[in-house]
Amino acid sequence: MKYRHAAALALVTWYLIVPPKGPSGQIMNGAPISQWRIISSFDSASACQKWLSDFRASAKTEVDQKKKGMSGGEWTAAQWQDLFRSLLLEVGGYETFCVASDDPRLKSK
Fold first, then answer.
1. Close Cβ partners of 104 (under 8 Å, ≥ 6 residues apart)
2. pLDDT at 41
């Protein structure tokens, strides 16, 4: 029985999913996960989480590099935070998460 369980786990793929966007391009908060978009797949949860973590870090790095390239005081802290959020939201970064391919929430109801 343990062998069968291990074999079943080996077949699970992990998806990086993002919430759907409405007609105006805004993220649709509260949409059922069955309506979310799969943007990538991974062989393991850790690989998916690493990609997501790396993406978030690269968005922050991009913001930091833009800050360095500007002469001081041109943007407020709130404006930089908005830029960071917009980079993440391009792919639903704050809401984006990893989910197993066999997660029942992915099935339409």
1. none
2. 93
Give the CA distances from residue 31 to residues 75, 81, 94, in Å, rounded to whole numbers and listed in that order: 34, 25, 14
Is the CB of residue 49 less than 8 Å from the CB of residue 24? no
Say if CB 9 and CB 97 are below 8 A apart.
no
Q: Where are the extended beta strands (E) located within 13-86?
A: 14-18, 37-42
pTM beyond 0.85? no
Place of tokens 């799969």: 38
Listed by start position, the domains of the chain span 2-106
Mean model confidence pLDDT for the chain: 77
Query: What's the rounded mean pLDDT across residues 58-81?
Result: 70
What tokens does 48 get? 């998916």
8 Å CB contact between 13 and 48? no
